[in-house]
Design a protein that fits this description.
By secondary structure, this protein is of the alpha+beta class. The protein contains ten helices and 22 strands.
Length: about 425
Amino acid sequence: MNRRLFLKVFGSLAGLFGISKTITGTREPGPSLSVMQSITNETYTRFVCVHPKDIQLSFDVQSESGEYAAQPHLQKSFTRDHSRFIVTQAHFKLTLEAQKYILTLKDKDTQQILDQRYFKSLNSSKNLSTFAFCSCMLDLLHEPKIWNSLVRKKPDYAFFIGDNVYTDSRDPFGSYPTHPKMLWDRYVETRNRLQIFKSKNLIPILALWDDHDFGGNDNGQDYPYIKESTEIFHIFFDMNPSQEQPGFQRGPGVASTLRRPGQLFVFADNRSYRLEKKSTHPYAHFGKNQEDWLLKQMKAFQGQIYFVSGGQFFAKHRGRETFIQNHPTNLNLLLKKISQLSSRVIFISGDRHYSEVASVDHPALGYKTYEVTSSGMHSLTVPGLAYVFPRPGRIAATAVYNFCLFKRLNDHTNVQAINARGRSVFSVNLWTQIRG
């Protein structure tokens, strides 16, 4: 039985027999609602809250000093008839004079305070100094300590890069496509369980999906509920563009970019337009419209580009869903186009339930670079899993629960795999602008 099939059988049995409480332990005391901070700059931020339908929320923000207070600039809610929960998005204008704030959530009818969180604004004229990539968050194996570890590291952003929700965990054999009702329910269940959404100190989150949150194991453009899945993704992550946040752009599917003066984060949707395995179509992986959009975002950019996708790019592992394994023709053509860009690209991926840093020297690209795989926060894994799948150029790897933390230093970027104790499992220095 392969890894993905075992995971799905395990998840289904756990849900069927109600053993998830045994796995996750008792819920930690603290905030009661599920709250996420989304795209943020110095003058604007967004929040997403999942809460019972019988509670109407009111939001307010004030600076930590108490000198600035604001009501939502925009507030809207989403639900489904079958669900007991509602998702409320709230957008706030911020003041340039403050960086630290308090978010207060109240029952609109009684004005009782239900929750309070702390958050910061971010200066969009500066590069991100610290950022984390996170993937593979099976809620049935929830490990609160890994999220506490992330919060203690205080990254400017946490990038969720796929399998953020296991929407298909109740269908162990993939016998039917995940229905939109189940998509919604699994998003709600995950939000109500994961510690990151209970944290008193919020971290801005930007997201991308892979197959399990898209709708099913190894699914691509033949998945019948792409429209519904995309809508639900944007409800829960609130990643629609706005004029108040020009550094963020949304592309086809769930693709997006986040731009800083010397950094460009390019998030590619590797599911919505994906063709069957071994297709030789020149746009088999990302689709033509999306690929053209991604390249347009990168063209003429001067700085470090991070090209992010849910699945690995360059690992040649038979039977695995890597770009080079599934669609080598498309990868070769895309790399030739990337080689013509003004800036060099570092590739970021998730999916594999182990993290690694590997050097990449593909002839179509024309220069050496890296692929950094960050996986997983809490997913099915075993010690030494990475070494079951060796690859050329590997510099470091680990299969413990972890996330990859990037720190921008004076003349290079450091990447570390951080475990649930907050300790570095490996540390690798990348150069920020690769020459030669």
